[in-house]
Design brief:
Elements lengths: L1 E7 L4 E8 L4 E5 L6 H9 L3 E6 L11 H8 L2 E5 L13 E3 L4 E4 L2 E7 L8 E7 L8 E5 L2 E2 L2 E2 L4 H5 L5 H15 L9 E4 L17 E2 H7 L3 H5 L3 H9 L8 H11 L15 H9 L4 E4 L3 H4 L3 E2 L3 E2 L6 H8 L9 E4 L3 H12 L6 E5 L7 E2 L2 E3 L11 E4 L3 H6 L6 E2 L17 E5 L4 H12 L3 E5 L2 H17 L1
Parallel strand pairs: 3-4, 4-5, 5-6, 10-13, 15-17, 15-18, 18-19, 21-25, 22-23, 22-24, 24-25
Antiparallel strand pairs: 1-2, 2-3, 7-8, 8-9, 9-10, 11-12, 13-14, 16-20
Helix pairs in contact: 4-7, 11-12
Length: 469
């Protein structure tokens, strides 16, 4: 048996390739939409992908189940659990509790483990060539290394009202009745790692075991004492902000993400043509440089989505494909870099990319406005906007600031003043540059706090030190 973990650092998301080497067949669990990594794995191991499935209706990325099934001819399987309100709307085989997918000697058994979502499945894997009992659990967003999937996303992202309490109780029952009944040696392979917003304290270790989580997880004592009330209170306390685009992911994943098919390589665009399209508001320019370079000058009206490990996350903060009709023009050093950024963007449903340019000479340029920490007290701002998470804001913030996390800003413009200047900040300036660029494009007068909260806190400390002496 072959188990390969394919990890996306951008979204802290894991998918899994499970293959039977004897029969040459494979199943992929929780694939992303840029599917070459799975096809390449199959080719390298002489296997055919015959099945594709997923643990639940995801909120943080757009599923590649339909994409991969269409490209390979594999059978798509999705959960049939969760009741009428949580049924997938596209054609696929349904898996219910204890149903199985078989590949040669390998059995992939579905376990209904509700709590994070009502329809959630985990997959218990038995390698029949070596054992007659399961040895692996793909736990999706049920059990992470050191944490559990948050049960409040239906409230935060899917329009639910107080569903978090039922979800938390379902998680307690799923742990008690499913997870903790498994042998301690069963390896646990979760769907997310550190940095994901699907939990509040996910570990960076890629896997765990049932026994380790039983002994050392924060929730173990609550289960041992059968303390459901204490468990629910602890689970729901301190969950991070959910990004606004999660709601779109939920809808599209339930209805069935569009199948893109083979994508042609991104073309390099002529700057004169891009200039004309910008003047006619037919394209949106995306400056992919770091914020310190953007602050030296950038294309007027551009979005700052810095290249690197967070292209999908930041892109979904500032581009809403349901309302933003313009295709994107990416600033990139070469075609390979542009293609990689596009791969990240399609993971969150941002498919419309016209091409790339390697520079912006001749395009209209402006310089984002900055303010220094020592200037803030005397500056007449309509609002000081903190785009960090609410947990960061609670730990320390600029007095009088309004907290609205970067992933929610463009969906909550009613919280912002319609006139005057907004001074915005995050922790170091990266997230702030992303959010501020979108606000400027939307017509707001935004001044970024240079160095953001870290610089302000250092200035405050220095000032207090001088005063005390």
């Amino acid at each position: 048996m072959l188990i390969e973990r394919i990890y996306d650092e951008d979204l802290a998301q894991a998918s899994y390739f499970i293959g039977c080497q004897a029969k040459g067949e494979a199943v992929v669990v929780d694939p992303r939409r840029d599917i070459d990594v799975y096809r390449n794995l199959a080719a390298a191991n002489g296997m055919k992908i015959v099945a594709v499935t997923e643990t639940h209706i995801h909120a943080d990325f757009l599923s590649g189940t339909r994409e991969l099934a269409a490209a390979t001819g594999a059978t798509a399987y999705v959960s049939g659990e969760g009741g009428a309100d949580w049924q997938y709307a596209f054609e696929a085989e349904r898996l219910n509790d204890n149903d199985s997918i078989t590949l040669g000697n390998i059995t992939v058994k579905a376990l209904h483990t509700p709590g994070h979502t009502p329809e959630h499945l985990s997959f218990l894997i038995t390698d029949g060539a070596f054992a007659d009992a399961p040895g692996y659990l793909l736990s999706g967003d049920f059990v992470f290394s050191g944490d559990l999937g948050r049960p409040d996303l239906l409230d935060e992202a899917a329009g639910g009202v107080d569903t978090r309490f039922l979800g938390a109780k379902q998680l307690f029952a799923s742990l008690r009745d499913k997870f903790l009944t498994l042998p301690d040696h069963v390896q646990v392979h979760p769907g997310h790692g550190a940095g994901s917003a699907c939990g509040k304290a996910l570990g960076a270790i890629p896997s765990s075991t049932v026994g380790y989580e039983r002994l050392y997880s924060w929730w173990g004592p609550y289960l041992a004492a059968n303390d459901e009330e204490g468990f629910v209170a602890e689970l729901l306390d301190g969950q991070p902000d959910a990004h606004a685009y999660f709601g779109r992911m939920k809808r599209e994943n339930r209805e069935g993400p569009a199948v893109m098919g083979e994508r042609a390589p991104l073309p390099e665009l002529n700057l004169a043509s891009v200039a004309n399209d910008l003047a006619a508001d037919k394209v949106t320019f995306v400056d992919t440089r770091p914020n310190d370079q953007v602050h030296q000058g950038t294309v007027t009206g551009s979005l700052n989505v810095p290249a690197g490990k967070s292209v999908a996350s930041f892109g979904a903060w500032v581009v809403n494909p349901e309302t933003d009709e313009n295709p994107l023009v990416l600033l990139a050093p070469d075609q390979a870099s542009a293609q990689d950024m596009w791969d990240h963007l399609v993971r969150v449903g941002i498919d419309k990319v016209a091409g790339y340019v390697t520079g912006f000479g001749g395009l209209p340029v402006s310089t984002p406005k900055l303010i220094q920490p020592e200037e803030l007290e005397s500056f007449e701002a309509a609002m000081v906007l903190d785009v960090r998470n609410r947990t960061e804001h609670a730990a320390g913030h600029i007095p009088g600031s309004h907290q609205l996390s970067g992933g929610r800003v463009m969906w909550n413009l009613d919280q912002l003043p319609t006139e005057g200047t907004i001074v915005s900040y995050c922790q170091s300036g990266v997230r702030n540059s992303v959010a501020a660029s979108a606000l400027r494009r939307a017509g707001y007068d935004v001044v970024e706090l240079d160095g953001s909260y870290a610089a302000w806190a250092a200035w405050q400390q220095a000032r207090e030190s001088v005063a005390s002496n």
